Amino acid sequence: MEKKEVIRIGGRRSKLAVVQSEHVKALIQRKFPHFDCLVFSANTLGDHVQSKPLYSFGGKAVWTKELEDYLYKDDDTRIDLIVHSLKDMPTLLPDDFELGGITKRVDPTDALVMPIGSPYSSLSELPDGSVVGTSSVRRSAQLKRKFPNLKFESIRGNILTRLTKLDDPETPFKCIVLASAGLMRTGLDFRITQRFQPDTMCYAVGQGALGIEIRKGDEKMKKILKEICDPVTTICCLAERSLLRTLEGGCSVPIGVDSKYDQKSKQLTLKGVVIDVEGTEWVELSHTVTITDEREDSIRCGRELAAILVEHGAKKILDSINLDKIV
């Protein structure tokens, strides 16, 4: 029997990350049954440090560095690609690596989760001073704009850890906010109390999509990924990442997006919001372009919206943010 060629897939060790790696494995093996995909998982700095908000010790690179070391290796521990939650993937990668593809997006919204048995079903029902758990400055800033009567405190850990903290009878949290996609991928979407729409909260750049990182110039992996990735998601997410990169924002900066691509008209509409951490100042605008070159026009859309946002005051808001003062 002919031995199958092996593709080694790397990802983080959390339950969600393993589910995502297995999803990409299934996509590849469905299209290329002659490949045998092996999933390798590793802990990253972001997994080890659970007591601090991400913005206080390194931003998005805390999820990627250890895995990139395995991508770079030249021995039998070398991996061929890394599966990331695209929202956790830096917009600027090390020189030796590149974004090889983006899989079809699932629900990109943020979700409100109430404790089991809670009498409340929305933030508007909560008593003044209720504590909302989220470690995302983007989420807390946008919600402060709409619900200034509530308090927002950091909550770290994987999905199950956060849900356990929420359901504890002694919990300080009246609710928490998580990505809808993470709950869906782990079979926990029954815990979603409410999905936030863009008029309340714009989602994170790349949220709901998986980004696949490869060695730069790896044509074999590029050809494989082209067959399993989604063009509509790619167009939207390239525009979102271009916006974020141009504004020089990271996972800690309050930048939200909402993107839609109409395949029939080839119109891409990208909405962006830049908001201060207290939710008192913001710039929220949209921009539409016609896509003729999927990559170049998507990236151009993000750059152009960034320029429009800056023209209307976004740079002033971003420059005023001092993350050291955020509790």
UniProtKB/TrEMBL annotation:
What InterPro entries would the database entry show? HemC (IPR000860), Porphobilin_deaminase_cofac_BS (IPR022419), Porphobilin_deaminase_N (IPR022417), Porphobilinogen_deaminase_C (IPR022418), Porphobilinogen_deaminase_C_sf (IPR036803)
Question: Cellular component terms, GO, for this chain's entry?
Answer: cytoplasm
Q: Which GO terms describe its molecular function?
A: hydroxymethylbilane synthase activity
GO biological-process terms attached to the record: protoporphyrinogen IX biosynthetic process
Q: Which cofactor names does the annotation list?
A: dipyrromethane
The name this protein carries in UniProt is: Porphobilinogen deaminase
Pathway where this protein functions: Porphyrin-containing compound metabolism; protoporphyrin-IX biosynthesis; coproporphyrinogen-III from 5-aminolevulinate: step 2/4
